[in-house]
Amino acid sequence: HIVEDISGFLLMGFSDDRKLQVLHALLFLVIYLLALTGNVLIITIITLDHRLHSPMYYFLKHLSLLDLCFISVTLPQSIANSLLDSGYISLGQCILQVFFFVALASSEVAILTVMSYDRYVAICQPLQYETIMNPSACRRAVIAAWMAGALSGLMHTTMWKMDDALIPQMLKLAFSYEFMNEIAVAAFTTSTAFICLISIVLSYIRIFSMVLRIPSAEGRTKVFSTCLPHLFVVTFFLSAAGFEFLRPPSDSPSAVDLMFSIFYTVIPPTLNPVIYSLRNEAMKAALKKVLSKDEFSQRKMYFKMCCF
């Protein structure tokens, strides 16, 4: 929540108490470091371990990269503001923050949609999996997800700047124009999110209908172990974000508003590495291998040879 100034904005902190501000900064610093460590580990493991060079882990690596960037957009600024007891942010900084926040959130929804389709093809069309999810198709899907996010972020920031330019010249018309812009952007964002949500739901309906036909309990458990982490991440992220954006605006934010803001901006990037790694035997084995002394020695020797 922000208060507009002439040259920028004043971010409203969680509390005016100095001790609580420092506590908030330390708590968020710990969360940020955990998210940073977890997502960097996943990116590193998937990059180094050739056994994880498959579409599922390729998309997971990009999800971790998005999470890493997403949490870095807001949390460091919030930590710095609490430590410095200053909520000022310039107009340019605010516009950039809005752009990256919207772009990365939109890209994350798109990547989660692609991941659900990947699981659908792997489980329901296993014989055609390598043909459909070939490396070229995976790269195009990831590029499309990043570009869709950038387009969404650009729409939000462009409309905002157009409104700022118009208000001094034609005040009454500007308010009407601003309202139409908000309706257009909201319609685009809502329809895109709805399409992604429907795609994810349809994918999992087909997945679960296929899984229930598997005769062995062990086979069903194995399939569920690859799908449930992704389904949990999708449900948590979309439900928290949906509540935040669809609720009526309030001039005096409550504790519930604050909690839901934290849920979709801070918690998912921090928990995603844990969710995807704890229930994934391949990820746990790759992590042990990367962190082992022998593997570390081999990597160290390899880098020395490259340097010389």
UniProtKB/TrEMBL annotation:
Primary site of residence: membrane
Keyword terms of this UniProt record: Cell membrane, G-protein coupled receptor, Membrane, Olfaction, Receptor, Sensory transduction, Transducer, Transmembrane, Transmembrane helix
Pfam families membership: 7tm_4
SUPFAM superfamilies linked to this entry: Family A G protein-coupled receptor-like (SSF81321)
One GO MF term: G protein-coupled receptor activity
Top-level taxon of origin: Eukaryota
Subcellular location: Cell membrane
A Gene Ontology term for the protein's cellular component: plasma membrane
InterPro entries the UniProt entry points to: GPCR_Rhodpsn, GPCR_Rhodpsn_7TM, Olfact_rcpt, Olfactory_GPCR
Transmembrane regions listed in the UniProt entry: 22-46, 58-75, 95-117, 138-159, 179-202, 223-246, 258-278
UniProt-listed Gene3D superfamilies: Rhodopsin 7-helix transmembrane proteins (1.20.1070.10)
Membrane topology: Multi-pass membrane protein
Annotated CDD domains: 7tmA_OR14-like
Residues covered by the G-protein coupled receptors family 1 profile domain: 38-276
Family named by the database record: Belongs to the G-protein coupled receptor 1 family.
Task of the protein: Odorant receptor.
Protein name as catalogued: Olfactory receptor
Organism phylogeny: Eukaryota, Metazoa, Chordata, Craniata, Vertebrata
